[in-house]
Amino acid sequence: MTTEVIDIGVDTVHTGLVGGGFMARVHAAAARRAGARLTAVASSSRGRAETAARELGVARAEDDAARLFAASDVDVVHICTPNATHAPLAAAALAAGKHVVCEKPLATSVADARALAQAADDAGVVAAVPFVYRYHPMVREARARVASGRIGTLLTLEGAYLQDWMLRQDDDDWRADAATGGASRAFADIGSHLCDLVEFVTGERIVRLAARTRRIFDERRGRTVTNEDVAAVLIETESGALGTLLVSQTAPGRKNALVIELHGSRRSIRFDQERPEELWIGARKGSRLTLRDPATAAPDAARLQSLPAGHPMGYQDAFDGFVADVYRAIAGEPPEGLPTFADGVRAAVVTDAVLESAERRSWIEVPA
Fold it and tell me: Which one of 164, 179, 191, 207 has the lowest number of neighbouring Cβ atoms within 10 Å?
């Protein structure tokens, strides 16, 4: 991970954080690297906020989120709290005139997600969702190659996002409680990243799908579980390409295995998030690995490369690039490819379609 400040060419942004867990640490590190001043933090209690302020290097702790939203020295609010709280917190931050970065899922219902996107448009503020895998330089390189026609016509694709942190029955988390995590767990949590990456790299929407879901345990540590551990999805894109997607939080040994592979009429291309420095380029003759190198990359990939070739970049670097782009957008220069609340709505729509298809056990059309 790099530590020097990213030059975003704008005045200091004053940042407030809601939440103090793992994702708040990631957001805080990215905001600091973008040159922001970490002004205030609020959490579930004053005591938790004070602890987060110490640990994250934030100037002060607030009693609650409402006081943070009312603060005159906060320009942008990063919401890093349980899923069910995203919609009301984001709505309150928007009503206070703040720019907002909200963890995904943006909301646990399509209606709430749409309302937030409309509120952000009405307020005229920057509102972003961290689909940060877009910010791996080699994802942008893959996207550029697809857009240029170098892989030919898209024929088929496969993708997977596999983890193992919910493998055992005594593995538990607030996400397993539908009241706080939402009706979908595995797909809303990580399948949304996979579908965003598929649509972002291919430039095509998923127009129909057929899904099956599986819940491995109906109870975890005395908690009744109603959301899924696994989702398997067949998809069709706008051009007629067919694909398979597998999402699981119960795959032993897989920690953060996000992979997409596209098969074109000329070439295949594969990106593996755990090997972010490379792309596999497949051909009938002469398949090869292409390594990250700003000297030979497409312009959109080169701009995200804060380190020279041979100096590995990873997840935090991708997150840093996302937050830097949010702050550029706040300055009035929104970079192409920034994931906004509209993308959060799209994720909610696809997630809803997966749950509906699994319940109906049939193919369904995915709304635009």
Answer: 179
